[in-house]
């Protein structure tokens, strides 16, 4: 995937011009929910547009990560207010810290179910307890091959009920799964539907104190 995106560069951004309104609307809602200066992580930030740029415009403290240094170079040029780091969600991300919100929009699209669920767990680990996680994926019956720029793959089944289940397996607290229609790509004759998972990183339950046995003072 890194090699694919290295070869695409700005072609990736241009391929989706005019076809990201649902994504833009979701990020706008997130920006309204968060206080100015809140820390947001954009996982799979690509060229920084529209998401990182939009989050910065909302007064948020934005970090983007991607597996492609070429994409990150474009992002740094286009969105100088954000910081961009070469990182893979499925590698060691401990140095990234935690964020008030994490967005991962159309990145976990070519994964089997166990890997997808692991991706959700890793997003949760990067989010403060009670923070917001947004994940977007194309809706799919999992029965037909998909052409994504220069990549052809057969996606897993991903319907609203599946996304609910994946989030549950990952331990997330699901708020809602929205199914939204976007215009089709240049090689599609019908519009596609995307699923937007809004979830929260779980808040640990307070520990129940054991019985009070009193203090023992040694003699």
Index terms:
alpha/beta, Rossmann fold, two-stranded antiparallel sheet, 9 strands, disordered C terminus
What does this 3D model show about the protein?
With 219 residues, this protein is α/β, with parallel strands linked by helices. The chain has a single domain (2-200), classed as Rossmann fold (3-Layer(aba) Sandwich). It has seven helices and nine strands. It has helices at 2-8, 10-15, 21-33, 51-57, 69-78, 113-125, 160-169, and strands at residues 39-43, 61-66, 83-86, 99-105, 127-138, 146-148, 151-153, 173-182, 192-200. The strands form two sheets. Strands 3-2-1-4-5-9-8 form a seven-stranded mixed beta sheet, with helices on both faces. It has a two-stranded antiparallel ribbon with strand order 6-7. Helix 4 (51-57) links the parallel strand 1 and strand 2. It is globular and about 40 Å long. The termini are far apart. Mean pLDDT is 85; it is low at 186-190 and 213-219.
SSE blueprint and pairings:
Layout (H helix, E strand, L loop, with lengths): L1 H7 L1 H6 L5 H13 L5 E5 L7 H7 L3 E6 L2 H10 L4 E4 L12 E7 L7 H13 L1 E12 L7 E3 L2 E3 L6 H10 L3 E10 L9 E9 L19
Parallel strand pairs: 1-2, 1-4, 2-3, 4-5
Antiparallel strand pairs: 5-9, 6-7, 8-9
Fourth-tier CATH superfamily name: Vaccinia Virus protein VP39
Q: What overall geometry do the principal axes of the alpha carbons give?
A: globular
Give me the count of strands.
Answer: 9
Proportion of residues in β-strands = 25-35%
What is the name of the CATH class?
Alpha Beta
Which regions have little confidence, pLDDT < 50, spanning 5+ residues? 186-190, 213-219
Total helical segments: 7
The helix/strand class is: alpha/beta
**Adjacency order of strands in the biggest sheet:** 3-2-1-4-5-9-8
CATH domain topology: Rossmann fold
**What letter string, H or E per element, gives the SSE order?**
HHHEHEHEEHEEEHEE
CATH architecture: 3-Layer(aba) Sandwich
Q: End-to-end distance, in Å? A: 68 Å
Give helix % range.
Answer: 25-40%
Largest sheet: 7 strands, mixed
